Amino acid sequence: MTRDLTPPSPLSIDGEGRTSGERVPGSPNPSPSPFMERGPGGEVDLSVSVGPLTLRNPVLTASGTFGYGPEFEGFVDFDRLGGLVTKGISLAERAGNLPPRIVETSSGMLNAIGLQNVGFQRFVTEKLPFLERVSCAVVANVYGSALEDYVELARRFQAVDRVDAIELNVSCPNVSAGGVVFGKDPEMLRRVVAGTRAVFRRSLWVKLTPDVSDVAAMARVCHDEGADAVSAINTFRGMAVDLDRRRPVLANVFGGLSGPAIKPLALARVFEVARAVPIPVVGIGGIMTARDALEFLLVGASAVQLGTANFIDPAVSMTVIDGLGQYLTERGITRITELIGAITVPGR
């Protein structure tokens, strides 16, 4: 199912009209796309497809760094954004971990928020009305403590028309299996993807954990069970130490490392995954600028998510979109899909 993300009327950006449309990434479009960015260098097509979902550009905001959307109103033009991924949503409301739960690190940050969220019902009643008013794609990040939680969330979101896709956060421990992380066990991952695929008919994404020996193998499991895309990657497990107090900084001891420090690691995972599966890859990890985003596209990502950068500059997604258009016009490239997977690797 493909949602029509065309705004009700053309937007006016820098005195130029902006409309939307569809195309398939990685292949020539025989007719001019109505989904164009206009600038002094001419028109460029930034639209991409992630499975059955078409985005006006490849820039999304990452789960856990953008709230539910309204928090960034006034900083972000949601009718320009490719899409937003909600804060992780569970069946029931969750308070999260005790503080301290965020610490800055060298070129990054550790977070141990603990998946604090309002739960499915409050999301529908309190957060969804805002999302109904914007035209960018909406991806709901979901997680559970048991297989049944994921399946029930997928079933409920199937009835929420405004949600274009769900992104399974499989970096969570399965309490019924002794705390084994879903995304680290191939069979458990297979069951989660297959179970949610059986009840959710729109675009299904799986957010992969990097804390495995073979992330490409996990991506293949997702593809085999019907996922439309994989998001690569989630944060890396890390910790920080308070030298004076001789104790961990985070109350939870461990946290997820994000930010520019993990970009080289994330690029490598995306490169591996994009060559292992035929479904689209959404690149995540340390993306701060348009050039960062373009590197992820070159190694095979069809779209990207901006995470930690939102804390530094809440309008960074707009800057990255502008930068993508500028890069293309300066080089005479008409469609951003020409760059997806276009990296040259000597000897391969």
Main sheet characteristics = 8 strands, parallel, barrel
- Supply the number of structural domains: 1
Percent in strands:
15-25%
Mean pLDDT: 89
Known CATH architecture: Alpha-Beta Barrel
| Full CATH superfamily name | Aldolase class I
Report the principal-axis shape.
globular
CATH class: Alpha Beta
Number of strands: 22
Q: Using the coordinates shown, work out and report the CATH topology.
A: TIM Barrel
What is the helical fraction, as a range of percent?
Answer: 25-40%
Distance between the termini: 36 Å
- Gyration radius (Cα, Å) is 19 Å
Alpha-beta content class = alpha/beta
Q: What are the secondary-structure elements, in order, as H or E?
A: EEEEEEEEEEHEHEEEHEHEEEEEHEHEHH
Write out the strand line-up for the largest beta sheet, numbering strands in chain order.
7-8-11-12-15-16-21-22
* Count of alpha/pi helices: 8
Q: Return residue spans where pLDDT drops below 50 for at least 5 consecutive residues.
A: 1-32
